[in-house]
Amino acid sequence: MKKVDHVKLFTDTSLACSKLITGRYSTSFTLGIRTLDQSLHLPVYAVYGFVRWADEIVDTFHEHDKAALLADFRRQTYEALESGLSLNPVLHAFQAVVREYGIDREFIDAFLHSMELDLEDQNYHPDLYNEYIYGSAEVVGLMCLRIFCQGDDALFERLREPARRLGAAFQKVNFLRDIRSDYEDRGRVYFPGVVYQRFNDATKREIEADIKADFDAAYAGILQLPRSARLGVYLAYVYYLKLFYKIRQLPAARILGERVRVPDNTKLLLLLGSYFRYRLARI
After folding, report:
1. 95, 81 in Cβ contact below 8 A?
2. Whole-angstrom Cα distance, residue 124 to residue 126?
3. What distance in Å separates the CA atoms of residue 202 and residue 93, rounded to the nearest whole number?
4. Sorted alphabetically, which Pfam families does this protein's record hold (predicted)?
């Protein structure tokens, strides 16, 4: 009888938990992961599971001491990274991927710092805004880039800046789409100098110009990604670009009155179009 490696079984089960979390929380992200090479699926699920669990602490558990929960999550994260084990399956899966792909500890520090910023109402001046976006979005892209580059440090350094710009574009689109709910539900306005009650078309156009510059800078990096990762990242890019264009076509008053989304049938068309471009070597 073949002996069962229970340590591997525990790690594999933990990775499967992160996959389940991704599927339950984000159909779009799950679709994007499925277009990556099979070997990249579980590592990226592990990153998403870690990020999602921290985000849930600061955005969901309002009847609990969120600062204490996040501090405990931080402590457990670093204990897992040091020991190579956690009984929290999300953290066990994450630490395994961090170790395997050499994900920088600084990225994890920056991410958890941004989560801490969400625990309090903040007046986001430009420096703090950039700091928050780096920690909440750009480093997540950099964690994934470490996985995609498979130990190729030169490629990672070449694609570091485009990866940051792509993460920033995604986050800023989220901020613009969710400006009403962020303000009404959480008392937040992320854009520096923007007063929610005076949000207008001119302010919206300034924000959109900044987002468009991030998208443009990110695209060149997508074309240089390994083939194993290129289609999945490109699909995320075109999905968010489509969402951005829908937002850009609407006046500020509409953004404050409704949550813009991309319909599922449009997502399917974007997937098919991206796949054919990939097969024809146009990306």
Report:
1. yes
2. 6
3. 45
4. SQS_PSY
- Whether residue 268 contacts residue 28, with contact meaning beta carbons closer than 8 Å, is answered with no
Closest CA to 30 of 15, 13, 39, 42: 42
Q: Quick one: which H or E segment has residue 228?
A: helix 227-248
Q: Dihedral of CA 163/164/169/172: which sign?
A: positive
Whole-Å CA distances, 245 to 58, 61, 121, 265, 276: 29, 33, 29, 17, 22
Per-position DSSP letters for 10-29, written without gaps between them? HHHHHHHHHHHHHHHH-HHH
Q: What is the mean pLDDT of residues 112-118?
A: 96
Q: Which structure tokens are listed for 15?
A: 């990775």
Question: CA–CA separation, 231 vs 35, rounded Å?
Answer: 6
Spatial CA neighbour of 55 closest among 107, 146, 117: 117
With a CB cutoff of 8 Å and minimum separation 6, the contacts of 75 are none
Distance set, CA 104 to CA 99, 140, 220 (Å):
9, 11, 24
- Tens digits of residue pLDDT in 211-247: 999 999 999 999 999 999 999 999 999 999 999 999 9
What span, in angstroms and rounded, lies between the C-alpha atoms of 156 and 152? Answer: 6
Which element (helix H / strand E) includes 198? none
pLDDT at 2: 67
